[in-house]
From TrEMBL:
Record-level Gene Ontology MF annotations: 2 iron, 2 sulfur cluster binding
Domain of life: Bacteria
Gene3D superfamilies in alphabetical order: HesB-like domain (2.60.300.12)
Natural source organism: Arenicella chitinivorans
One protein family per Pfam: Fe-S_biosyn
GO biological process, one term: iron-sulfur cluster assembly
Residue span(s) of domain Core: 2-101
UniProt family annotation: Belongs to the HesB/IscA family.
PANTHER family linked to this entry: IRON-SULFUR CLUSTER ASSEMBLY 1 HOMOLOG, MITOCHONDRIAL (PTHR10072:SF41), IRON-SULFUR CLUSTER ASSEMBLY PROTEIN (PTHR10072)
PROSITE patterns, sorted: HESB (PS01152)
Record's GO cellular component terms: cytosol
Matches recorded under NCBIfam families: iron-sulfur cluster assembly accessory protein
Protein name, entry field: Iron-binding protein IscA
Length: 105
């Protein structure tokens, strides 16, 4: 399961509407110094093998390959000084690189 905070859901819903999409596509790819990096994109269709989660009216599609890596992740949208960014809390992450761009499971 993927969970969204209310602030993340509001931001994602706004971006889904702007991008003529039906869902957020969320997953992980091999990358960085720790092994994996989160990937976010907009889905215009849902694939049969996707797992779909919905909160606050926002659908999140996760491909079958990424699901074991990102299952349980909470997506938040936070303000840090003058910047706003998405933050990921993944209980399966055993390590994160110093720059915060990649993680290990």
């Amino acid at each position: 399961m993927i969970t969204l905070t209310e602030s993340a859901a509001k931001r994602i819903a706004n971006q889904i509407a702007k991008n003529d999409a039906i869902a957020l596509r969320f997953g992980a790819k091999e990358s960085g110094c720790s092994g994996f990096a989160y990937v976010m994109d907009f889905a215009r269709d849902i694939e049969p093998e996707d797992a779909v989660f919905e909160q606050y009216g926002v659908r999140v599609a996760v491909d079958a390959k990424s699901l074991p890596i990102v299952s349980g992740t909470q997506i938040d949208y936070v303000s840090e000084g003058l910047n706003q960014t998405f933050k990921f809390s993944n209980p399966k992450a055993t390590d994160e690189c110093g720059c915060g761009e990649s993680f290990a499971v």
